[in-house]
Design a protein that fits this description.
The chain is an alpha+beta fold. Helix content is 40%, strand content 25%.
């Protein structure tokens, strides 16, 4: 019985406890290609691959009004994609961001040297349902209506194109390398409908703050990850894509 209890506790730990790496404020669907020489991160990658659990938590940093940088409590679970290679004193790997989470307890040092914490995984649909049953029951409905602005024809854009189509067209003129935007769009997949406003907001954030950065939009991923309300996420994404468009078309450079 004790052995069974220990096994159950181990399974529960694996389901809710993640090794943590502070590197970038990734949002769902993003892919990070990197060559890393940090010995501790290399050890973590080896451990994850050996245990056939190729996942760990990715956190970013946020800058406070006084200039101080702090670790975020909200991040994403990243998957180590197939093809990770250890070369000399480094590892080349691709990481794909998946489920969002918030740290739900103390951050501890694992025996191998890295930090880990129990986390609570966040489900967009569940969050929206709970919000719709809260004090401001119309907030999600307003977010859905605002979300339509991303893909609807816009009379303020050239040729009445939508905000997303306009951004993509301008971004292709500002690519760091040929095909960067097409590759990005392939990674992100289809844009979520406005009826899924949280996922839509994160898709927009992944679009305008790509990896590697293009420098054509303000960094909004930490704000999206830490926002408490669906409507706030949509508003952050909407304001950011508009400002990015104005920067790229020259009407209001940042």
């Amino acid at each position: 019985m004790a052995a069974l209890r220990s096994r159950v506790e181990e399974v529960n730990d694996r389901a809710t406890k993640l090794p943590l790496v502070v590197l970038d404020s990734m949002v769902p669907r993003q892919v990070l290609k990197a060559e890393v020489s940090n010995p501790l991160l290399m050890l973590l990658v080896r451990e994850c691959l050996m245990k056939e659990t190729p996942f760990f938590g990715m956190l970013g940093m946020a800058r406070l009004a006084d200039g101080q940088q702090v670790h975020l409590k909200y991040g994403v679970e990243v998957e180590i994609l197939e093809g990770a290679k250890f070369v000399n004193d480094a590892v080349r790997l691709e990481l794909r961001a998946g489920r969002r989470f918030c740290i739900d307890g103390e951050v501890d040092n694992a025996g191998q040297g890295w930090t880990e914490a129990r986390v609570k995984f966040l489900d967009s649909e569940q969050e929206e349902m709970e919000e719709a049953r809260g004090e401001d029951r119309m907030s999600v409905a307003r977010a859905i209506m605002k979300g339509k602005e991303f893909t609807s024809p816009n009379m303020n854009m050239k040729d009445n194109k939508s905000l997303v189509d306009t951004w993509i067209q301008l971004a292709k003129e500002n690519e760091r390398k040929p095909g960067q935007i097409d590759e990005l769009l392939e990674q992100l997949g289809d844009i979520p409908p406005s009826e899924n406003p949280t996922e839509l907001a994160f898709w927009i954030g992944a679009l305008i703050n790509p990896i590697p950065a293009m420098g054509v939009a303000l960094e909004v991923r930490p704000s999206l990850l830490t926002a408490k309300r669906t409507e706030d996420r949509i508003q952050v994404a909407l304001a950011a894509i508009l400002r990015s468009i104005k920067h790229m078309d020259g009407s209001a450079p940042m």
